[in-house]
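Hi C.,

You asked whether I'd gotten around to modeling the 303-residue construct. I have! Everything is below, sequence then structure, no commentary in between.
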Amino acid sequence: MKQDLLTFANWTPEAMESLLKLAVEIKQAPASYSNVLKGKSIVALFEKPSLRTRVSFDIGINKLGGHMVYLDVQSGKLAGREDSVDTAANLSCWADAIVARVFSHSTLETYAEAANVPVINALCDKYHPCQGLADYLTMFERFGKTTGLTMTYIGDGNNVTHSLLIVGALLGCNQVVITPKGHEADASIVAHAKALAEKTGATIVESNELEAANGTDVIYTDTWLSMGDDTPLETIKATFMPYQVNEALMEASGASCVMHCQPAHRDLEITGSLIDSDKSLLMQQAENRMHGQNAILTQLLSA
């Protein structure tokens, strides 16, 4: 029976720990996994532009011995050409899996229902599971564990926030989410993450105050302006500039590391000097996108 990865919300702590361990093993001994996808082809269907996701999947699949076919929905004039259900059904006639970066989570659900091969969420409006796995792989490498640590997310409650909450809860990592009023994470997803956290002993705190970050191990932020959002920058800055991640905030909170999923807007949500500092884990996160995704591909396809 095929297994999709649209979100980690239905995973167990044990399964999440196992996948993290696999990602560590693949990164440390890539040669041992160089034929996992031998003879397999993966279609990567992108409705949205990408740097890290596209390149990390393409090179990662190659390192596993497979072949990636990239489909740009917009430039390839595929958008609206046929129903999503027919797109997925056709792709699964040839491909061994479908990686999809889409605007709407419902598109992924349609793909998963129509395709008889695994569907992997490479980003949607609700979740970014591949990013979440890469981020906790990075934390594990930095601290030697995830359990008992605290990650504080500061900014707009979005798809990245949701996956950080879910994966963190499964891995026993305490979560603090600090957002401006009106920009909180989805309440139903937060509630689900809290239910998962009860199984691992992790805590989840929501706040609109920066003081809630005090005592954290890691501060995490993301862009304030999501792709396709036409809100004027000055309006965005008026709301979010008090939540900028900078050196003063790092010192006040006691955080030893800063994270950002990128693309980062220097001197908006995070200062450029902090990105370039020895506290920054940004490039390690970017590198780990490939290793985390390769663990996902190995788990879903190696059998």
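If it helps when you're writing up: Strands lie at 41-46, 67-72, 97-101, 119-123, 150-154, 174-178, 204-207, 218-221, 257-260.

Thanks,
B.
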